[in-house]
């Protein structure tokens, strides 16, 4: 049996835990508590306290704005799925404190009628916070680091490897009860003296949340020049760097918000100010700082240059929310399209879309490590439908080109183009940029060689015939040429006889007979292996016989219309088991799974290939790249 108050009593309820707030909601609704004259108005104000989540969420958004604060990040590793899952119910403490506040209001009815504001009460609360809450927290915190208390309780908070604002509330019930008691001391004393006010209660609580979330945000927000010019200030406010040191050296920096008590207690880490200065941006010239916003530039000596960059774009409006900046929990699960929850957040997603268009800057979305090297994903702020607008072509290419040139300037080794960023009609699969900038040191990779390998490995051994749409695209051409060499009959759906003949002429003379041009889906009504490289409408799918399997490399994926058929996923691969810091699912894919073109760029980087991978796919390299992927621990998803 575990230690008392070491786990939450509603732990097994999952998201149903919010029903615990039901009685208060019912009382507020029944008593029309939103009306100021209602006797239950206090209940409405109490429920407003649950909006405290916004403080932590906004700090969470800021923490993951890597395009803005990339150079001031303290711990330069991503938050992985394990930590996200562990901290999923980080807001348990809010439910507990809500009921503690309700209990206090029932026990002391006079608290329901506090005046709006009393400056004297705020002064008393501030004095008591410094004189009582701060030193008591310091002593409590040091006690929690000793023996059984740490093993039974405080270890949970320290199990978070990378601090996030949500980590502030990730603790055991015993710790939250103790912190709640310390929070109550200044407010209760002011109220007991007849100096309490509604603004004091709300203001003190929100300020407490603000500073707690800031201290855990993993981004240095206090400028170094402040501590240099006014040294005394460093003992009055604990910076994110200061608190991060406590999680790496748990025998120092115990204070709540004021390092003064660590100084008095002899537990101040000597490196606190040096590391804070290094993590702040005071040495960056103003023009360089402005230039870095949205561009992911690295500062020599303080930031690590990524070796690999995967350049993606947003697929649709609601998918813009599927990133760690907006919601790390949402991003840690595969994107499921227009779900009720996604539609509820559609206005926010629309605002994000407008902001991305206005910025017109490539920004860092997330990063991870593999074999000790940094891999980043950048986003071109353009949505899928824009790629099909003729007048948008030049603007999109300029943004992709700008991202490539920035990566080249930074010293990135490989940039892999995702989805529509490598569209043949847009830039010839990246050939446009290679031809325009022949001196590029960064290697441009479309990753389609490995994509073709993944699709081909899905086709069962012994297949004698396949039906292929999108047959004259980069991938379609490579798949057709590979299969015909294996003596597989390929029905290539294309309206262009000229393009078909050109591909047929590339095949060995003895294999050309296995390439057959068709112009209608009816021609494949007896073929049970369909490879969709172009959108297939439900009506077209009806021509497939029962039991057909639809392989596909079309974006977006075809509709799963036929119940008597099976549908493959988009070509994808699972990253090696030693990947670190990955906490984002790539679009609709599962955890640790990336699109094959992403994996193709990873292999290109790990193998150290010197050339670009743009334009037409070299069919002779399909097996070579597949075998390289296997050697590096990637595997079919």
UniProtKB/TrEMBL annotation:
<keyword id="KW-0456">Lyase</keyword>
<protein>
    <recommendedName>
        <fullName>aldehyde oxygenase (deformylating)</fullName>
        <ecNumber>4.1.99.5</ecNumber>
    </recommendedName>
</protein>
<dbReference type="GO" id="GO:0005789">
    <property type="term" value="C:endoplasmic reticulum membrane"/>
</dbReference>
<dbReference type="InterPro" id="IPR036291">
    <property type="entry name" value="NAD(P)-bd_dom_sf"/>
</dbReference>
<feature type="domain" description="Fatty acid hydroxylase">
    <location>
        <begin position="127"/>
        <end position="267"/>
    </location>
</feature>
<dbReference type="GO" id="GO:0071771">
    <property type="term" value="F:aldehyde oxygenase (deformylating) activity"/>
</dbReference>
<dbReference type="GO" id="GO:0008610">
    <property type="term" value="P:lipid biosynthetic process"/>
</dbReference>
<keyword id="KW-0256">Endoplasmic reticulum</keyword>
<feature type="transmembrane region" description="Helical">
    <location>
        <begin position="121"/>
        <end position="140"/>
    </location>
</feature>
<dbReference type="GO" id="GO:0016491">
    <property type="term" value="F:oxidoreductase activity"/>
</dbReference>
<feature type="transmembrane region" description="Helical">
    <location>
        <begin position="176"/>
        <end position="202"/>
    </location>
</feature>
<dbReference type="Pfam" id="PF12076">
    <property type="entry name" value="CER1-like_C"/>
</dbReference>
<feature type="transmembrane region" description="Helical">
    <location>
        <begin position="44"/>
        <end position="67"/>
    </location>
</feature>
<keyword id="KW-1133">Transmembrane helix</keyword>
<comment type="similarity">
    <text>Belongs to the sterol desaturase family.</text>
</comment>
<dbReference type="InterPro" id="IPR050307">
    <property type="entry name" value="Sterol_Desaturase_Related"/>
</dbReference>
<feature type="domain" description="Very-long-chain aldehyde decarbonylase CER1-like C-terminal">
    <location>
        <begin position="466"/>
        <end position="635"/>
    </location>
</feature>
<dbReference type="GO" id="GO:0005506">
    <property type="term" value="F:iron ion binding"/>
</dbReference>
<keyword id="KW-0472">Membrane</keyword>
<keyword id="KW-0521">NADP</keyword>
<feature type="transmembrane region" description="Helical">
    <location>
        <begin position="88"/>
        <end position="109"/>
    </location>
</feature>
<dbReference type="InterPro" id="IPR021940">
    <property type="entry name" value="CER1-like_C"/>
</dbReference>
<keyword id="KW-0812">Transmembrane</keyword>
<dbReference type="GO" id="GO:0006950">
    <property type="term" value="P:response to stress"/>
</dbReference>
<dbReference type="InterPro" id="IPR006694">
    <property type="entry name" value="Fatty_acid_hydroxylase"/>
</dbReference>
<dbReference type="Pfam" id="PF04116">
    <property type="entry name" value="FA_hydroxylase"/>
</dbReference>
């Amino acid at each position: 049996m575990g230690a008392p108050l070491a786990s939450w009593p509603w732990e097994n309820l999952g998201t149903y835990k919010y029903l615990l707030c039901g009685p208060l909601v019912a009382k507020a609704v029944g008593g029309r508590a939103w009306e100021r004259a209602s006797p239950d108005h206090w209940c409405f104000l109490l429920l407003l306290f649950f909006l405290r989540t916004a403080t932590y969420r906004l700090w969470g958004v800021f923490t993951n704005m890597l395009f803005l604060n990339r150079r001031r990040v303290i711990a330069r590793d991503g938050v992985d799925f394990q930590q996200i899952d562990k901290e999923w119910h980080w807001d348990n403490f809010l439910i507990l404190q809500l009921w503690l506040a309700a209990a206090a209001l029932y026990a002391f009815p006079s608290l329901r009628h506090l005046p709006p504001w009393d400056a004297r009460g705020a002064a008393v609360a501030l004095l008591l916070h410094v004189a009582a809450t701060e030193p008591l927290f310091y002593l409590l915190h040091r006690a929690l680091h000793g023996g059984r208390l740490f093993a039974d309780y405080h270890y949970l908070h320290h199990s978070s490897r990378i601090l996030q604002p949500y980590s502030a509330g990730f603790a055991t019930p015993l710790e939250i009860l103790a912190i709640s008691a310390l929070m109550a001391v200044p407010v209760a004393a002011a109220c007991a003296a007849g100096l309490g006010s509604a603004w004091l209660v709300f203001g003190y609580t929100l300020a407490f949340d603000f500073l707690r979330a800031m201290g855990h945000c993993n981004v240095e927000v206090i400028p170094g020049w402040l501590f240099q010019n006014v040294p005394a200030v460093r003992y009055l406010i604990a910076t994110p760097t200061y608190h991060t040191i406590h999680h790496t050296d748990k025998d120092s920096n115990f204070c709540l918000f004021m390092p003064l008590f660590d100084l008095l207690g002899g537990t101040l880490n000597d490196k606190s100010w040096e590391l804070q200065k290094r993590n702040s941006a005071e040495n960056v010239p103003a023009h360089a700082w402005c230039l870095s916003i949205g561009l992911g530039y690295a500062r020599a000596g303080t930031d690590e240059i990524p070796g690999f960059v995967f350049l993606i774009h947003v697929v649709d409006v609601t998918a813009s929310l599927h990133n760690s900046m907006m919601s790390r929990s949402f991003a840690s699960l595969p994107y499921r399209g227009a779900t009720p929850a996604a539609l509820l957040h559609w206005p926010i997603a629309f605002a994000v879309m407008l902001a991305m268009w206005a910025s017109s800057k490539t920004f860092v979305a997330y990063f991870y490590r593999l074999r000790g090297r940094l891999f980043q994903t950048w986003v071109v702020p353009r949505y899928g439908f824009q790629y099909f607008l003729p007048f948008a072509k030049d603007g999109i290419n300029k943004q992709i080109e700008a991202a490539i040139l920035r990566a080249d300037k930074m010293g990135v080794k490989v940039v892999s183009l995702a989805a529509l960023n490598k569209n043949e009609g847009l830039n010839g699969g990246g050939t446009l940029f290679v031809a325009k900038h022949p001196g590029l040191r960064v290697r441009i990779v479309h990753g389609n060689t490995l994509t073709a390998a993944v699709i081909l490995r899905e086709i069962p051994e012994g297949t004698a015939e396949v039906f292929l749409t999108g047959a004259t695209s980069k991938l379609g051409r490579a798949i057709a040429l590979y299969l015909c060499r294996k003596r597989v009959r390929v029905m290539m759906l294309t309206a262009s006889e000229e393009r078909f003949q050109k591909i047929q002429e590339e095949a060995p003379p003895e294999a050309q007979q296995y390439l057959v041009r068709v112009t209608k889906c009816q021609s494949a009504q007896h073929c049970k292996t369909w490879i969709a490289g172009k959108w297939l409408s439900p009506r077209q799918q009806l021509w497939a016989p029962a039991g057909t399997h639809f392989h596909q490399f079309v974006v977006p994926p075809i509709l799963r219309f036929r119940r008597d058929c099976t549908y493959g996923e988009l070509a994808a691969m699972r990253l090696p088991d030693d990947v670190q810091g990955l906490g984002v699912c790539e679009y609709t894919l599962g955890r640790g799974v990336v699109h094959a073109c992403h994996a193709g760029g990873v292999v290109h980087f790990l193998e150290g290939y010197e050339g670009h991978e743009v334009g037409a796919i070299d069919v002779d390299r399909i097996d070579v790249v597949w075998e390289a992927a296997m050697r590096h621990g990637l595997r079919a998803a």
